[in-house]
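Hi L., both proteins are below.
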Amino acid sequence: MQHTIPADLINRVHLADALSVLRALPDGCVDLTLTDPPYSSGGTTSASRSQVPSSKYIGGDVKTVYPEFQHDSKDQRSWTFWCMTWLAEVYRVSRNEAHLACFVDWRQLPSLTDAIQAAGFTWRGVAVWDKTSGRTRPRAGGFAQQTEFLVWATKGAVRRADVYLPGVFSERLAHPKRHMTEKPAQLARDVVRLAPAGGVVLDPFAGSGTFLAAAKGASLNWIGCELEPTYHRVATARLAELDTLPAAA
């Protein structure tokens, strides 16, 4: 059964834990979940994974100082269980034929695809974000770390729509970023096309608000959660700025 979303929950970035907001949403109300959760990655040992995010995800040549974020040091089993927990709630609040598009890195890709299926979604495939050659992390004797992955799944069948997205998004992210793990705005604008006109886009881990801004810019409804006060302020201000822009001709 599908229900109307309460007015105090929709078109807002909530300064709250994702699960608390998800549990407040009614069944079957979301058309697309586009999100980028903490990866709890960045190393092959527990010691390396326990470092602060800037030590794991920011190159030594980057001078910009980004605010840190918490809850990024789980081991792989606890991270997988945590993903199953919030993904089960995302499944509940999703409409039939709703899409899920979730970012992940190469280390956690197998765990995420397991968690997505355990939550009830049908895994449909994996798209690639190619950061382009100017944004790689080269490795002597091996391959550069140049990509992240976007896992695609649906609740039930794939909704028929005149939308054709590429399997590889080659997008160079301009510096300085708003968030140390920010994703490209154009990629977000492409992916929100999966939501129907007037639909609802959910991002339980909003960060600097890239995905929510794409949804709002496409005249979609949106719901965001961000636990870190600094990034909540960034996302809220970014979305408010869209209200001051002139309407498209």
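That was the first. Here is the second:
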Amino acid sequence: MEPQAKLDPITEIALRSMKDIAVPPPVSWMPQTWGWALLAVLLALALLIWLALAMRRYRRNAYRHEALRLLEDIDAKLRQPESGGNALHELGEILKRTALAAWPRERIAQASGPSWIHFLDTSQKESTGAALRRLLDDGEYRRANAVRDLPPAEADELVREARSWIEGHHVST
């Protein structure tokens, strides 16, 4: 290490008289006016209202989710020849149970045949498909072995039309 050089007296006095740099206080992250705080509260309130409405909508449609889950089981049963007839009966039952969950029992329980098809038509934007009409008109009342020979294309159409009604029916409140 080198020995420190001796400073001249004027420089030494000048260095001793120097002060540290004055640092300003840090800038606050808090809003400067009450308007920003109000905006933050309103945004938080809007978010809470949106979450509450989304949860309410999800709960109101819980019967649809359950019906769609059961429809997937029926779709698998329709592909098996030994359970195809029972699956057709279950398909009609699922549609009726779905309607009972959304509308008053007095309006749904007595509907069958043409009145049931008319109800399904009027409760959605699209009309009920031909395959579903045939099933609901008389197919679900036949014995299981009479409807066992359902072609796969018609089974797919039945499931697709039932899914369309379950997802798309409109319940007026």
